[in-house]
Amino acid sequence: MLHTAKELLEEARKKHYAVPGFNCVADIMIRGILDRVEKLRSPVFLMLYPNDMDEKTWWYFPAIVRAAAERCTIPIVMHLDHATDIDVIRESLDNGFTSVMYDGSSLTFDKNVEMTRKTVEIAKPYGATVEAELGLVGGFGAEGGEVASILSQPKDVVTFIERTGIDSLAVSIGNAHGVYRQLPQLDISLLKELNAASSVPLVLHGGSGTPTDQIRAAVENGICKFNVYADCRVALWNRFKQLATELKSPDPSPNAYIVPLQQAIGDMVEEKVTLAGACGRA
Q1: Which of 52, 65, 71, 96 has the fewest Cβ atoms surrounding its Cβ within 10 A?
Q2: In the annotation, is 231 catalytic?
């Protein structure tokens, strides 16, 4: 059931819902996410962030996702998130990723076009789809450090898409990565303009912590995929701290803590899938 982003997001755009994308590390997160989206009958992006990789990740993560996808009955996209290294993109495609993102948002417009177009050319023989970013989604990443946002401009959208051949576009409309220090205010008027200008589905990064009414408004006005990572980490960490005080045995069964952690991430996933309007879309 591994799919490319193109087929899923075009359907989402047509029917005005979004496909949720969850960054995950190792099998505990993959199982927690997939168990719940399959129950909800939702398509899903399982995403890997390059900074979470080590030398074993290339065979370990794809092997788990492929094995799970063979038995799942919902569409799954295996997606490389925020890649800035062409060699990393090549390696992910060699290992079966069906979707990749080249993040040239910190580059000049022309350099972003050049590198994104190169990614599209590399991905095409694999049948994989490509996401890019126009503008700059700032915020606080998992590694710390604040980056200021640069809003996407409708006048740039048509040119960027025509020159790159991308399949989806991440936009900056007041959203941010990581845990918000203050509540965001998404610019829905700008999103409407971007959606009108774009021939490809739009993506919202920074889906963690964004107020539900703003997410709903974004989905209603053109967002076809939104990304979640910080809320995955928060859900796992909060439940982990609870379990550390609740479990009294010096050698508890692994399932005594693994299953509750999977349930914790599943509960968070259910909230996001419902918010995206993706229940029953598989």
Answers
A1: 71
A2: no
Cα 59 from chain centroid? 20
Q: What are phi and psi of 276, to 5 degrees?
A: -75, -10
Residue 247 φ then ψ, to 5°:
-80, 120
The one-letter amino acid code at 119 reads T
* Catalytic residue (choose from 35, 54, 81, 267): 81
Instruction: Select from 122, 128, 116 the least CA-distant residue to 80.
Output: 128
Give the whole-angstrom CA distance, residue 174 versus residue 164: 24
**For each of the chain's 282 residues, which pLDDT tens digit applies?**
799 999 999 999 999 999 999 999 889 999 999 999 999 999 999 999 999 988 888 889 999 999 999 999 999 999 999 999 999 999 999 999 999 999 998 899 999 999 999 999 999 999 999 999 998 776 555 444 455 567 889 999 999 999 999 999 999 888 765 555 556 788 999 999 999 999 999 999 987 778 899 999 999 999 999 999 989 999 999 999 999 999 999 999 999 999 999 999 999 999 999 999 999 999
CATH topology (fold) of 5-276: TIM Barrel (3.20.20)
135 with 175: CB under 8 angstroms? no
Q: Both tokens of residue 109?
A: 């417009």
Domain assignments of the chain as residue spans, ordered by start:
5-276
